[in-house]
Amino acid sequence: MCESEACFDDGDAINAAAASDREVGALLNNLPSAHGDLATQPIVGAAGLVGRLRAWKRRFNDPAKRARRAARVIRHIRFVYFAHADDDSLFGEYHHELVTAEVLLDRVLAARASGMKAVHTGLQGDAEERLFTRPQRGSFQQVTPEYIRWYGRDGIRRDIPMVREELAIELMGEFAYSYSDALDVATNNSGALARNDQTWLLTRAKAPISCRPLHATEFRQLAKAIEAAYNVPDGDTKVAHANVEIARRAAATLGAVMDEYVQTPFTTPELAQAFADFHSAHLQRVADASRLAGVLPIPVNGVMGWFTAKRARIYAEVQARLASR
Fold first, then answer.
1. Confidence of residue 149 (pLDDT cuts 50, 70, 90)
2. pLDDT tens sequence across 184-229
3. pLDDT at res. 62
């Protein structure tokens, strides 16, 4: 599991990841396979077998160990591949989609486990390109909001481009706008991002590739790969049945880790239904957890912490209602 010091929850008091860990673990554990049951191990002796059974009984009867096993999440998903497939065959193209689905879903689960917002459906891939592509100073014919975003009044370039809120304040001093007008100009006449969005992109760029969260473009690519995995080409029926079920579980897992309401990205009815069911259930669990947190005493960080928790509760309930429509 990769580590990250950043958290994209913006101070929310609700641990949304914990609300679905057990369900994700149940979905990804004991995935179907086309390889049959594992070979039975030879019995080394009756006494050894009895000892192993007693040890297993003690482990299963231990409440603490049962709780740890229930909370343990296997954070990867693996499809079944056709044997003896050429790279140029139809199976080769199908295998490419399987690898894409596995890699992207692994990144989602690893990013979520390390405390990051695993998927940002509001940011396209080109937003990241614009953030890390500084325009040349000579390309500006006059002082524009985009120029102010990248360069100071003295022409010295900024280490990091201004976020939308900072740019609005700068425009208020430069052109005597009101804050609402300045924010509208910053939004529509520059590439400035909201503070949370820019922080998410900057931290995403620093994260190892194995746990790098997905932007909207990669999210659609993942959904497309899962649908391709579901539509198994003609071949081994055992592989087909296994991958259909694994793809359904992958869609359900994706719905169970999305903390903000999104419409289902799948066009296949079975996958769309699996995503919607688990997505709605997850958002409802987050809302229930936020209500429980709301009846607790005022936290040690005082009234501001209470208002933060209340804002998180209202937001979680709105997301749950959107998903239940």
1. very high
2. 999 999 999 999 999 999 999 999 998 899 999 999 999 999 999 9
3. 56
If you search the block for the tokens 């509208």, which residue do you land on? 184
Instruction: Say if CB 202 and CB 193 are below 8 A apart.
Output: no
What is the 3-state secondary structure of 11-44?
CCCCCCHHHCHHHHHHHHCCCCCCCCCCCCCCCC
3-class DSSP assignment, residue 170: helix
Please work out, in degrees rounded to the nearest 5, the angle formed at the alpha carbon of residue 261 by the alpha carbons of 258 and 266: 75
| Cα gap 162→195, rounded to integer Å | 9
193 neighbors 167 (Cβ within 8 angstroms): no
Type and span of the H or E element at 215: strand 214-215
Residue owning tokens 């694994």: 246
Contacts of 95 (CB under 8 A, 6+ apart): 81, 82, 85
Taking the C-alpha atoms of residue 40 and residue 82, their distance in angstroms, rounded to an integer, is 25
> For residue 92, how many other CB atoms are within 10 A of its CB?
12
- Segments of 65-109 assigned E as strands: none
For 36: left if phi > 0, alpha if psi spans -120 to 50, otherwise beta; the answer is: left
- This prediction has a pTM of 0.73
φ, ψ for residue 120, nearest 5 deg: -115, 100
Tell how far CA 249 is from the center of its chain: 16
Q: Across all residues in the chain, what is the average pLDDT?
A: 77
Closest residue by Cα to residue 91 from 267, 222, 236: 236
How far apart (Å, rounded) are the C-alpha atoms in residues 191 and 149?
8
